[in-house]
Design brief:
single chain, mainly beta, five-stranded mixed beta sheet, 12% helix
């Protein structure tokens, strides 16, 4: 069986993990794991001090001075990147992107590959003691929905150990597009008091106890921090509010909410609780740092709440809506990252700039930035553009931008090449590539280029039709390339016909409709994009993504069509070309579809060629939710499902 896939042009949505102190959740503490690390060379790890931690904290000792109420002590300065794709620890930055878990020395820039897996796999890691713990979700489905594995590897890359390979997936049996875009099928991993917590939205799903010999055993939720939460309370699912595990490690107490959505803090040992008098529903964004909470209210007021005396301090900074997951604390400061473009006065090109906004405890803010100079906007913007193009089906929020001392660290992609880069803070910054890799399974990738255009047809009165199109073509080096381009051109022509049909329909609507100031005007917005989602030596696959927004009906539709081609002949390939007869494919694939369907679905649905594409782990099928789920009432856009059947499922019965 040939290797298959790459389903991803993973790119970046931005977040910042700046640091003045370079340490993280892996800082050694008196009660860090005591398993035997025989044969492990930790000579290159930076030792930490021997200060005693407070009863709750695994990172820093809490302040227990007489002036403080020790039930809810003032939090010590801390840095914690738990769950992020970039995490700091001593002299090192640990990062994960596109199947590569890496360690970078922050002074020399030397980068070491610790672990490599399929580029489309999902992975979340946590630093603990002298090891990196991580959960990995392979890019396929199974009928028992137990495809998540738990690993441990020493921070120097030695002694990789598989701890469990039968963990129930974070979401099963299906994913919709929103959850997939937000890494919805992988747990967040965190560790406290030798208990590994696998969580989603701050709630605990699976827990494992670390034994002294390095093994793990599953334990009940009631025997963990989550079992200490009173029945009438729950962890808050709101983005930006730290999980009980994160809060206990850094604050020494937990944040929970009651049924009225009021936010409390709680000491799980004594049971002491305090109402912070914050109505969670009135707040758009939360961000916690040191002894402060940043609150951005839905009425656009934004303040800092001092947890010691409950005083509120106005701040002159406003977080961008929806970025609270990407806010990071660093000591007594809070940092938030964004991207803007500015015109280069010399070349006239738009230059992308990284901005790290630092919020101080007195409510003021200051800005650090780095300009990335290149010969053209197309050349320079490749680092950020995918994160800004939300229509990409592979838009991913987990890769991070991190600020350490006077350098930004971030992941980049340009064509088929991905890299970890470092950019100095300041003007005209030079990019330093620390690691570079390709995500394709081919020694001779096809060369591609894109064409884009957009327009708007104003039909008079109140209606118009807007459209944007992104087209992808191969450099025609072979007859097969030319044949594939002809097929792609037919796809694009079909979408252009849809634009023309929509314009004609709107003209007719315009002529026959009487408008009042209370009626919706019938504007239409159409868009089309295409992505190469897989390539090996013999095969290339394209994902065509379409969107149609009907303003006057306040709803729309979005859908994908997939096209797989033979790179030697240019012929379009189907499921049968890879997996055998139609009957055999239906026998194996249809049970996966039946798990999603809530009424009778024709088995032949798995043979429709527009649904079929390849991944590194198996054969994949795409479905719109309203095709197979009866409860589809999603308002604006209906969800999408991606079923990936492992190659082994076909091999076992062949």
């Amino acid at each position: 069986m040939k290797n298959r896939i790459f389903m991803v042009f993973l790119s970046i949505t931005l977040a910042v993990s700046p640091a003045l102190l370079l340490t993280g959740c892996g800082r050694k503490a008196p009660d860090s794991p005591a398993y035997d690390t025989e044969g492990t060379d930790n000579s290159d790890e930076k030792e930490t001090d021997d200060k005693s931690s407070a009863p709750f904290s695994h990172t820093f000792p809490q302040d227990t001075s007489a002036e403080e109420n020790y039930v809810f002590p003032k939090a010590a300065l801390y840095i914690d990147d738990t769950g992020k794709s970039m995490q700091r620890d001593g002299e090192y930055l640990y990062s994960y992107c596109d199947g590569r878990l890496m360690r970078t020395h922050t002074e020399t820039g030397e980068t070491t590959l610790l672990y490599e897996t399929g580029s489309a796999h999902q992975l979340c890691f946590c630093l603990w003691g002298d090891a990196v713990y991580f959960v990995e979700r392979k890019n396929y489905d199974s009928l028992d929905c137990r495809d998540t594995s738990l690993y441990r590897i020493q921070k120097n890359g030695k002694n990789l150990t598989l701890l469990r390979d039968d963990i129930t997936n974070a979401y099963s049996p299906y994913l919709h597009w929103y959850k997939e875009k937000h890494q919805g099928n992988i747990y967040e991993i965190d560790i406290y008091e030798d208990i590994i917590y696998l969580m989603k939205y701050n709630n605990c799903d699976v827990c494992f106890k670390l034994e002294s010999d390095g093994s793990v055993r599953e334990i009940k939720k009631e025997d963990t921090l989550f079992g200490k939460i009173p029945p009438e309370f729950s962890p808050s699912y709101r983005s930006g509010i730290p999980s009980p595990v994160y809060a206990m490690r850094n604050y020494g107490y937990m944040f929970i909410q009651d049924t009225d959505k009021a936010l409390y803090r709680m000491d799980p040992v004594s049971g002491a609780m305090e109402n912070l008098e914050i109505d969670i529903e009135s707040v758009r964004n939360f961000a916690f740092f040191h002894n402060m909470i940043y609150l951005e209210y839905k009425n656009e007021n934004h303040t800092l709440l001092n947890l010691s005396d409950k005083s509120e301090i106005p701040t002159d900074h406003l977080l961008t809506e929806g970025v609270c997951d990407n806010i990071f604390s660093s000591g007594d400061k809070l940092f938030h990252c964004d991207v803007n473009y500015k015109k280069d006065p010399d070349s006239g090109n738009e230059i992308p700039c990284l901005f790290a906004r630092c919020i101080l405890p007195d409510g003021s803010s200051e800005t650090l930035h780095a300009e990335i100079r290149a010969t053209s906007k197309e050349e320079s913007a490749y680092i950020f553009e995918p994160a800004l193009e939300e229509e990409s089906p592979y838009w991913d929020t987990r890769p991070t931008v991190c600020l350490i001392d006077d350098h930004f660290y971030c992941f980049a992609e340009k064509g088929t090449e991905h890299s970890l880069i470092r950019i100095p803070v300041g003007n005209n910054s030079d990019i330093q590539t620390l690691a570079c890799w390709t995500t394709l399974l081919t020694a001779s990738p096809s060369v591609m280029y894109t064409e884009k255009y957009e327009g708007e047809v104003n039909l008079g009165k109140k209606s118009s039709v807007s459209y944007s199109v992104k087209q992808l073509f191969l450099r025609e080096q072979t007859d097969a390339d030319r044949s594939i381009n002809r097929a792609l051109s037919k796809i694009y022509a079909g979408f252009e016909e849809k634009i023309d049909d929509t314009i004609q329909r709107e003209k007719e609507y315009e002529e026959t409709t009487e408008y009042t100031e209370y009626t919706y005007h019938p504007d239409d917005v159409l868009s089309s994009s295409i992505f190469c989602n897989y390539m090996d030596d013999d095969t290339i696959s394209f994902d065509c993504f379409f969107s149609h927004l009907f303003i006057y009906e306040t709803k729309g539709s979005r859908w994908h069509e997939y096209y797989v081609f033979d790179r030697h002949t240019g012929k379009r390939l189907t499921f049968e070309d890879f997996a055998g007869s139609s009957e055999h494919i239906i026998d194996i694939a249809f049970p996966y579809v039946e798990r999603l369907a809530e009424w009778e679905v024709s088995p032949d649905i798995v043979l429709e060629p527009e649904r079929f594409y390849l991944t590194v782990d198996g054969y994949a099928l795409y479905f719109a939710r309203d095709e197979i789920r009866e409860d589809c009432d999603d308002g604006f856009f209906s969800d999408s499902f991606y079923i990936t059947i492992p190659f082994e499922a076909f091999e076992e019965t062949s």
